[in-house]
Design a protein that fits this description.
Elements: H1 2-28, E1 34-40, H2 46-60, E2 66-72, H3 87-98, E3 102-106, H4 107-112, E4 124-127, H5 131-140, E5 144-146
Parallel strand pairs: 1-2, 1-5, 2-3, 3-4
Length: about 150
């Protein structure tokens, strides 16, 4: 009986030491770089969402610390037409492109608005199978979904 108590105490101590070392290793590991996709389909929220993305970048210390994608469809895409975009939006889109943010325009929306990529601000790529399909693809790859 005495041997069992010694063996049980030894195994418990080893297990506790292993758990403590694992917890310390996890606490010391750098945080994983987050991947986030912003969903924008409301024309009235374009400035708000662009501001959210800028605040996100500022809050994490820049584009090197987060991977961001923006998927635009519906009426919101009209704000990104090169012929109608305001200078502030154009400036942000240019900076986001330089920062490596994916700017995806819904292919279905482009067809319904009778436009192509050349008609949008520079930096956009086409989500040929649709904006909602692109959102689902990114989420399946671990992107967190944000719809401000």
């Amino acid at each position: 009986m005495h041997r069992r108590s010694i063996l049980w105490g030894t195994l418990s101590a080893i297990g506790a030491a292993f758990a403590a070392s694992s917890a310390n290793a996890a606490a010391e590991a750098p945080p994983q770089k987050l991947k986030v996709v912003y969903h924008l389909d409301d024309l009235d929220k374009v400035s708000f969402v662009i501001g959210n993305i800028q605040n996100h970048l500022d809050g994490v210390g820049g584009p090197g610390n987060v991977t961001i994608a923006l998927v635009v469809h519906g009426q919101a895409l009209k704000a990104f037409h090169a012929s109608a975009a305001n200078p502030d939006l154009s400036m942000h889109v240019g900076q986001f492109t330089r920062d490596g943010i994916e700017l995806a325009a819904c292919g279905n929306t482009m067809k319904s608005q009778n436009i192509g990529l050349k008609d949008l601000l520079p930096g956009f790529v086409a989500a040929e199978r649709g904006g909602v399909v692109r959102l689902a693809e990114l989420q399946s790859r671990g992107y967190l979904y944000l719809r401000p």
